[in-house]
Amino acid sequence: MKILHLIQKPQNRGAETFACQLANHQLTQGHEVKLVSIFSGEAELPWKGEISSLRASVKNRFLDFPAWKRLNRIVREFQPDVIQTNAGDTLKYAVFSKLIFRWNVPVVFRNASEVGRYLNSKFQKQFNRFLYKHVDWVISVSQASKKDLVNHFPFLQSRSQVIPIGLEEKSYIKAIDLRSKGNHHVVHVGGFSFEKNHEGLINIFQKVLSTVSGAHLHLVGDGPLRSKIEDLVRAMNLENRVTFYGFVNNPLDFIKSADVLVLPSIIEGLPGVLLEAMYCKTPLVAYDVGGISEIVSERTGSLVEKDDEDSFSQRIEENLLNPDLARIESAYAQVCSHYMNKEISRKFSEAYQRIVSKQRLIRQSS
């Protein structure tokens, strides 16, 4: 089978990283795979091959005829059996290119979040309805993500399924010595965007310090709101208790080194960082949003009602001072059994086969 993956751009983000990991496994399975980015980027992604770029215009993304034409040329030359669009503007570019240049390849949309949270106007909803009308199949990362999408666009019910995100097997993860920073280490990994709720995290951490005075917060990641959070840390006189690392190539090493990983996000699909914590045998605390409750329960971690900062801080304290070893082992077993990319990739291939077979039947009957 020939598979074409569309990604937003080469950037260190979960959607792009998972698309590359998935594509690598599909290569191993014997498929022919091509990766194409909408926009140019500089990040090095974990893809074994070359990433082509449509060199799309960020300022003209709603009327980018040259980029739509380039995608058409790639589709005509590569002749994929299926095209998977992975977040960002990928679905938009695929749909417009397909409609204008009339290529006939099934389009799969990978839904990795809660789409409804981003529909802030009637125009946005109508525009997204138009795009989804031209999607052949949707693969959502969690039941919550699927439910959210279908609630807003009920016509997608009959062409949707759930396949979760997965992890790559690691033979060794190196722990980082963080003892110079304090006695108890709280780690957060994620981009500085409003969804990740860093401001709430700083408030929560300040509460933790009132009980666990030797605690230190390690913030791994970068993004547009980083400077704002740095200002907040200074204003709260927490400079000696909070460290900013920016983007790192080895986030698993930080997770492995943590006493607890935290995720107080207000919007999530199925965050891979929680699976990574389980795989590293690191306790975790997270808000109950999106599909998080589908992987985090009292058997595998600490789940807190959204916006309950007092309970969140208490669960952090519990995990720092008295970690539940049975829970840690249960979480690790869950990830190894159900969330490794080698098996996850097979589920994607099975979905593609069904979509392609259905397309062939439609062509034969017409």
UniProtKB/TrEMBL annotation:
SUPFAM superfamilies found in the cross-reference section: UDP-Glycosyltransferase/glycogen phosphorylase
UniProt entry tagged with the keyword Hydrolase: no
InterPro entries for the chain: Glyco_trans_1, Glyco_trans_4-like_N, Glycosyltransferase_grp1
Ranges for domain Glycosyl transferase family: 180-328
A GO MF term: glycosyltransferase activity
Domain of life: Bacteria
Keyword check for Transferase: yes
Stretches assigned to the Glycosyltransferase subfamily 4-like N-terminal domain: 14-167
Swiss-Prot/TrEMBL keywords: Transferase
Name of the protein in question: Glycosyltransferase involved in cell wall bisynthesis
Native source organism of the sequence: Salinimicrobium catena
